[in-house]
């Protein structure tokens, strides 16, 4: 059933499919599917394994990218949104969310003076609050918007993680298309399809180079962080559940 999990499909498998789509298209065109024999079986199995290999690579490289992003930007965004130095929310709204969260986790939030005198301790408090919120907002039905933002972030992070692998694969596809067209050993229809795949690989590479950017990952991360804090309002309406879990 994990295979059917919406997050796994949309945030891990979809980036892998998008990354290797030109290669799959080239295989589909150049391999004969008129009869089912050993080469066709091997090709089918290899393509399936390649999907999961790229999905795993996307996740691992995405996680590595995530660490570098948070290191460069000063940490997980949601860990700082309630600190008074952050200007994402206006002061009144921020104070209201600080009160919500402190009641939910059963800890008093740092005062302005405490934040100024000991920012490390204040950050540790907000990290605990952030962890508590993430653990208590895993109900996809109740926190649908948060889940969607998490999927968007996971998709962009993992896609960015395999950006250079996808570009390298596009280069390989372009070279293969050039060789196939040069050798001219396929039918005219097949050669036309190969040329179209070459053009698709070129556009695909441009997409990865110009659209799949670090900025898009950071933007998705910020949006997820904001929605996580906003979810505290839903949790605050259930004091019995909150006290039991805190």
Class by alpha and beta content: mainly alpha
Given the C-alpha coordinates, what overall shape results? elongated
Question: Describe the biggest sheet?
Answer: none
Distance between the termini: 30 Å
- DSSP strand content: under 5%
Radius of gyration: 24 Å
Sketch the topology as an H/E string, one letter per element: HHHHHHHHHHH
Number of helices: 11
Keywords: Membrane, Transmembrane, Transmembrane helix
Q: Could you explain the architecture of this structure?
A:
By secondary structure, the chain is mainly alpha-helical. It has one domain. The chain has helices at residues 6-30, 38-73, 91-105, 112-117, 119-135, 144-161, 163-183, 188-210, 214-230, 232-236, 239-245. Keywords: Membrane, Transmembrane, Transmembrane helix. The chain crosses the membrane at residues 12-33, 39-58, 164-183, 195-218.
Key features?
246 residues; mainly alpha; 11 helices; disordered C terminus; transmembrane helix; membrane; transmembrane
Describe this structure in a few short sentences.
Keywords: Membrane, Transmembrane, Transmembrane helix. This protein has 246 residues and is mostly helical.
